Every structure is written in C-alpha cells, then in structure tokens.
From TrEMBL:
Top-rank lineage group of the source organism: Eukaryota
Protein name in UniProt: Peroxisomal biogenesis factor 11 alpha
Pfam families linked to this entry: PEX11 (PF05648)
Keyword set includes Transmembrane: yes
Keywords: Membrane, Peroxisome, Peroxisome biogenesis, Transmembrane, Transmembrane helix
Transferase is among the record's keywords: no
GO biological process terms on file: peroxisome fission
Source organism of the structure: Poecilia mexicana
Length: 247
C-alpha cells in the first residue's frame, strides 16, 4: 500500500511542478497587469487559472506525506551525522506540512468541518518554512565543505593568485580577503551546479512562507517571481536527474 502511494506520488511530481510553474506564472502576470484597467478580462481569466492550478495540485499532493516519511527513514541512515539530521528534520517537517495542507483541503471541499482552517493553514506554512531552513542549512554545510576542499587544492590556489593579481583594483580593495572568499565561493558553486541550483531554489521558496507568516512581507510580484523560478528549477532537476542534489 505504502509502496503504491509512494510510486503514484513520484509519478505525479512532474505534473505538480508544471501546475506550480503555471500557478506562479499567473500570479506574476496578475501582479504585472495590476494597473492596466483595459486588461481586466485577462486578469480575471488568469485568476481563475491560478485557482484551478492550486486546487489541482492539492489533489495531486494527497500522498505526499507518506512519501516524505519514507524519505525521512532513508535520510536517517546517512553516515554524515549533520547531513542526516538536517535532511531527516526537513523531511519530517515536510510530512507535517502536507498533513496540515491536506487537512485544509479536506475542510475546503467539505470532507471535515471541525477544524480551524486558518490555524491549520498557518501551521502548514510554519512546517514548510522550517523544512526549507533545514534544507538551506544542509546546502550551506555542503558548500562550506566543498570550499574547504577547493581552498586546499593547489591548482585552484594558483588560479586564485592569478585572479587577485589580474585585478589591480582588488589589491587596493579594503578587504582583499573578502574578494578571495567570494571568488572561492563562486568557483565552488560553478563547479557544483547541483548544489548551486538547490540553494537558489530553496532561497526562492523561502519568500513564500515568510510572506504568508508575515515575517517578511514582500510584494505579490516577488512571491510570484520567486515561485516561478523555483518551479522552473524543479522541472529542470526532474527532467535532468544529474542536476539534482544528492542525497
Ligand atoms: C528539502 O530537500 C529535500 C531533498 O532534496 C526535498 O525532497 C524537499 O522537497 C525539500 N523541502 C522543501 C520544503 O522544499
């Protein structure tokens, strides 16, 4: 049963990502058209499309809590303790997020009546935010490890010295160490696109719960734009599994 649920939800992942990209593309377009009174019709159609995408995704996501629990069981076995902790906590929070999200959906369609919709929806955003923070901690940890490795690499050291002497304005900079650090960071991200993509995706996703919870209010345009970028990265990593961060 569990296997079947997990299999089905991983198959529906592609559909979910396309729906999500469409949903945020609509949100962004609605924001960009907000001051155009002659486009009222189009905006109304986009709004209805956005709502349909959002509702369709809720249905596709019904099995995702089970999926996240299975993922948590797997990440618990990782030999790197910190990595294991970050990913397991992230997966458990993701499961809790889906449970709340499914409950809100069930309330909306009238399957259950007894829950406070607003509170469950806020809790969903909290778990989602916490899952993202744990994922970003993982990204940061992996980036620091890679930077350390690269910094010890002799071939890289000579390139770094080359870069520093090539840019005389850098030598006069207030903090040349900072420039060296940024160079090291950018070179690391360039040589590990999987980590770079995952980091960008998680940072983009962060704006959605931060806005929802009122911790950092950004505009509907920022939320739409970040959601669209993160969905496109999601589609890319699904289409090209070599670009997906592991584990
Ligand atoms: C956190 O990372 C895992 C593994 O990469 C991923 O499956 C999950 O969707 C991420 N969580 C969120 C909230 O994006």
């Amino acid at each position: 049963m569990m296997d079947a649920v997990v299999k089905f939800t991983s198959q529906s992942q592609g559909r979910d990502r396309v729906f999500r990209a469409t949903q945020y593309a609509c949100a962004l377009s609605i924001y960009l058209l907000r001051n155009k009174p002659d486009r009222k019709d189009l905006v109304a159609r986009l709004k209805s499309l956005e709502n349909n995408m959002s509702a369709g995704r809720k249905l596709l996501r019904l099995g995702n809590a089970a999926n996240s629990i299975v993922a948590a069981k797997q990440t618990m076995q990782l030999s790197d303790r910190l990595l294991s902790l970050c990913l397991t906590v992230a997966n458990i929070n993701r499961a809790l997020y889906f449970i709340c999200d499914n409950a809100v959906w069930a309330r909306n369609v009238g399957l259950i009546r007894s829950i406070d919709k607003e509170r469950w929806s806020i809790n969903a955003s909290r778990y989602y935010l916490f899952s993202l923070v744990m994922n970003l901690t993982r990204d940061l940890y992996v980036i620091l490890q890679l930077m350390q490795k690269k910094g010890r690499d002799n071939r890289f050291k000579s390139r770094m010295n080359q870069h520093l002497s090539d840019c005389p304005e850098v030598a006069e900079a207030v903090i040349p160490e900072l420039d060296a650090l940024i160079f090291l960071l950018l070179e690391t991200l360039r040589s590990e696109p999987t980590v770079a993509l995952d980091t960008v995706k998680n940072i983009c996703d962060l704006f959605i719960p931060l806005d929802r919870l009122g911790i950092y209010k950004s505009s509907a345009g920022v939320v739409g734009f970040c959601g669209l970028i993160s969905s496109l990265i999601g589609i890319l990593t699904l289409a090209r599994p070599t670009l997906r961060i592991k584990p």
